[in-house]
Amino acid sequence: MDLARTATRATGAPATKKHHENLAAIRDGRVASVHSWELVTAVDGPGTRLTYFLSGCLLRCQYCHNPDTWKKHDGLITPIEDVLARIRRYLGVFTATGGGLTLSGGEPLMQPAFVARVFAECHELGVHTTLDTSGYLGTSASDELLDHTDLVLLDVKSGLPDTYREVTGRELAPTIAFGDRLSARGTNVWVRFVLVPGLTDAIDNVDAVAEIVARWPNVSRVEVLPFHQMGEDKWNRLAIPYPLHGVQPPDAALQERMRGQFRAHGLTTF
Which of 6, 111, 145, 173 makes an SS bond possible with 116, Cβ 3.0 to 4.6 Å? Predict the structure, then answer.
């Protein structure tokens, strides 16, 4: 297989020699299973970002707007050389805007070897790197990977363990442990919290998130992200029952109440 030139669709078909080669290449970071990429400004980190959405995620967030990223084998097998070539193409844009590369998902730490390789190459090129993660797989991030991570967008999806489990189907503790590790390292973190009326908006849940985050002095900002319904069509196309049908986006008053709760803990909040 010519990894420098070949991009193929991963499938759940019976294992073949090529399939095994793809899996081995993913494990050592020569390729990644990629859902998509885009060039964006004012989201996913500072400046203009080249954002790659990697396939695969263990969480099943009720408000996920990209359920088509959940399965790693649904992505496009993409050689690292192709990604690096696109990064080089936008070096001028990154320099002019203070931007860089963001790896998102899905969950990029499902493919940690690729993240580590790409971020190391970015630093050789002088490109700012951002990791967008739930932190649930934080133990998969090596110290070397984090050495080449300039910013982490950490999704703290709820502050109460029971609510976190209701939202994601998983446990809160790994995210807190990863946040503690980033704090000890002094890694710059932007915390993200999705505000869903009737699911994550309870005062005690938001206060719990704020209390967790306030103990991390490396958090430079908190972003309260209002829930939207733009992902429902994808759930329907995939024939996955959508649990938030009919839920309305939060109004301005509720959003400002949430931001006030974070600000009350001394957190810079947007």
Answer: 145
Pair 259, 269: CB distance under 8 Å: yes
CB-based contact 159:206 (threshold 8 Å):
yes
Which residue type occupies 2? D
For residues 201 and 205, what is the distance between their CA atoms, to the nearest angstrom?
Answer: 7
The helix/strand/coil state of 248 is coil
d(CA 197, CA 63) in angstroms, rounded, equals 11
pTM of the model: 0.92
pLDDT (0 to 100) of residue 226: 97
Return the pLDDT at 5: 34
Q: What is the pLDDT of residue 15?
A: 54
What residues form DSSP beta bridges with 49?
40, 100
Give me the residues of the chain with pLDDT under 70, please.
1-15, 17-18
Tokens 């024939």 appear where?
239
Query: DSSP characters for 71-135?
Result: -GGGSEEEEHHHHHHHHHHTHHHHHHHT-EEEEESS-GGGSHHHHHHHHHHHHHHT-EEEEEE-S
The owner of tokens 């029952």 is 241
The answer to whether 134 and 153 are in contact (CB under 8 A) is: no
Residue 155, SS3 per DSSP: strand
Distance CA 73, CA 89 (A): 28
pLDDT, residue 153, reads 98
CA distances from 261 to 13, 199, 213, 228 (A): 49, 17, 12, 21
What pLDDT is recorded for position 24? 79
Of 123, 122, 149, nearest in space to 135 by CA = 149
Pairing status of strand 48-54 against strand 100-104: parallel
Q: What is the chain's Cα-based Rg?
A: 19
* Nearest-angstrom CA–CA distance, 207 and 222: 13
